[in-house]
Design a protein that fits this description.
By secondary structure, the chain is α/β, with parallel strands linked by helices. Helix content is about 30%, strand content about 25%. A hairpin with a 2-residue loop joins strand 10 and strand 11. Helix 1 runs parallel beside helix 2.
């Protein structure tokens, strides 16, 4: 039996809502043509409570593929809920769809509508000829609850069948950030295939000697470096144990890094524009471009001087541009702030330090006049009303040279 694993479609993702819809549609349609069954390990939707138009989108997508002649069909279901279709489209809710226990989530609504089978905390058995495939699903739960949930459910493979354990969690070996994350050793043994959602990049690994496959999301959402690869889904052949990744059409995602070491705003602006021009020169679909500006810029540099939002707006018809300046620092700024926190700066009083910084900034600016920086600082730090201060400061700045 050929099983298509399609995950993390994030319908309703606001930033790239059209991409989410078109790419989910292509993935589901291709999967329905190439596979005998489709399993979906979570996050069909991007929100816990999708808007009615997003639910409508999902219903139309699944309604279209229900007309396909799948090679397999659902022959048994062991869960607490009822199912309303025999079509082999089997899903679980992900973390984006998780709501309080006892309430219907968005995936359960699709199951109630007969558009798929929600196999959360249940085993769904598919049949094709003499072959049986059993899918046990664990819907996305909070990280601290996943181990107790597994201990309580104690899922076991069904004898004489090909068994799939489908879940939607962070895995410590892949994301070693929290001891609360589930580890490979915590996953139930005896299954022939482990299919996971949640992570948006493709992963191929081994658990208990068997394949662990994560197809990644069908739409870009996190703008992380690992998402620069192709989007798509995986088809696994239960007879040969072989699998392949099927690519779908997705918007190109490019990350470029620019070093700001010992340079000024004008040079960075020019490099940003050159980077954008290179990215869009290939033509085709409008790409998503993330430009990371890092390093330590020269003293006196200001992030605001780069006008990054204006650059993004200027090229908005050619690319979707995002700037990341989290790793950009200004020469001396960190030590100055640290000294300020500790009350040092050569024992300089805070007011005197403020006047010094203002003087240094004015000396590098294009502001000209006969006023002294100390005059401006005194005005700005006065306790007069804001209107009076601004008026006096304006008159001082516009004062002609003697």
């Amino acid at each position: 039996m050929k099983i298509a694993i399609v995950s993390d479609m994030h319908l309703g993702y606001e930033r790239f809502s059209e991409d989410a819809l078109s790419q989910a549609k292509e993935a589901l349609q291709k999967a329905s043509e190439l596979a005998d069954a489709i399993i979906i390990p979570g996050d069909i939707f991007d929100k816990r409570y999708p808007k009615p138009d997003v639910i409508s989108q999902a219903m139309k997508l699944f309604r279209e593929i229900l007309s396909k002649n799948f090679g397999a069909e659902v022959v048994e279901y062991s869960g607490q809920n009822k199912i309303y279709t025999k079509k082999p489209i089997v899903a679980i809710p992900g973390t984006h769809e998780r709501i309080a226990k006892g309430k219907e989530n968005a995936v359960q609504l699709l199951s109630l509508a007969g558009l798929l089978v929600d196999t959360s905390e249940a085993t769904t058995t598919l049949s094709k000829g003499d072959e049986r495939v059993c899918i046990f699903g664990l819907g996305g739960v909070s990280e601290e609850m996943v181990k107790p949930e597994l201990e309580s459910l104690n899922p076991k493979p069904v004898p004489g069948a090909f068994n799939i354990f489908m879940f939607h969690q962070s895995i410590y070996e892949l994301l070693p950030f929290s001891n609360a994350f589930i580890k490979y050793s915590d996953l139930p043994e005896g299954f022939d295939l482990y299919a996971c959602g949640h992570m948006h990049n493709r992963v191929e690994a081994k658990v208990h000697g068997k394949p662990l496959l994560i197809p990644g999301s069908t739409v870009l959402t996190q703008l992380k470096s690992e998402e620069q690869g192709n989007k798509g889904f995986i088809i696994f052949d239960t007879e040969s144990y072989k699998y392949e990744f099927v690519k779908i059409n997705s918007r190109p995602f490019i990350i470029k890094e620019i070093s700001a070491n010992q340079t000024d705003a004008e040079k960075i602006i020019e490099e940003c524009k050159s980077t954008i021009s290179d990215a869009v020169s290939k033509g085709g679909v409008k790409p998503i471009l993330k430009i990371k500006i890092s390093g330590t810029a020269s003293r006196g540099f200001e992030k605001a001087d780069m006008g990054l939002q204006s650059i993004a707006a200027k090229y908005s018809k050619e690319a979707i541009i995002s700037f990341d300046t989290q790793s950009l620092s200004i020469e001396g700024s960190e030590s100055a702030m640290e000294e300020l926190r500790e009350g040092k700066v050569d024992s300089m009083p805070v007011k005197e330090l403020g006047m010094h910084l203002l003087s240094e900034k004015l000396s590098k600016s294009k502001v000209r006049g006969s006023f002294k920086p100390s005059e401006l600082f005194t005005l700005l730090s006065s306790e007069e009303s804001k209107e009076k201060v601004l008026k006096a400061a304006g008159e001082l700045l516009l004062k002609e040279d003697d």
